[in-house]
Amino acid sequence: MIDLQEIDKPKVIELLKLKQSKKKFVVTPIAILKNYDFPVSEHHFILDNKSAISKLKQILAELNEDGILTKRVRKQTYKGIKEIGYDYANAK
């Protein structure tokens, strides 16, 4: 498993390309962490890593501005946590 602090913009883009080639999924900070095998179903993990999740939110917002992601109209909910969802704009 990758270290949580190592997740950056290039790693997120790499993950998007890999995952989208297999099947389409909604891109959220928690979805990214889940794809890197972090225990997102454990509520204390989410609470203990709010700064990393905020960093991912910022990365996704930048990718949206860069045209790599497109923001969804509705927010996604995971275990009571509402998140902005994105679609990968370069998906085939």
What this model shows, in words?
The protein has helices at residues 9-22, 29-35, 43-48, 50-65; strands spanning 69-78, 81-88. The chain has four helices and two strands; from the N terminus they run H-H-H-H-E-E. It has 92 residues and is an alpha+beta fold. Helix content is 47%, strand content 20%. The protein has one domain (4-88): Arc Repressor Mutant, subunit A, CATH 1.10.10.
How would you summarize what this structure contains?
It is built from 4 helices and 2 strands. The chain is α+β, with helices and mostly antiparallel strands and 92 residues long. The protein has one domain: Arc Repressor Mutant, subunit A (Orthogonal Bundle), CATH 1.10.10.
Q: State which percent range the strand residues make up.
A: 15-25%
**CA-based gyration radius:** 12 Å
Overall morphology: globular
The pLDDT mean sits at 86
How many β-strand runs? 2
Number of helices: 4
The CATH architecture: Orthogonal Bundle
Secondary structure class reads alpha+beta
Which sheet architecture does the biggest sheet show?
Answer: 2 strands, antiparallel
Question: How many independent structural domains?
Answer: 1
- Order of strands in the sheet with the most strands? 1-2
**What is the CATH topology descriptor?**
Arc Repressor Mutant, subunit A
Order of helices and strands: HHHHEE
Identify the CATH class: Mainly Alpha
Low-confidence stretches: none
Percentage of residues in helical conformation: 40-55%
Our measurement of the CA-to-CA distance between the termini, rounded to an integer number of angstroms, reads 28 Å
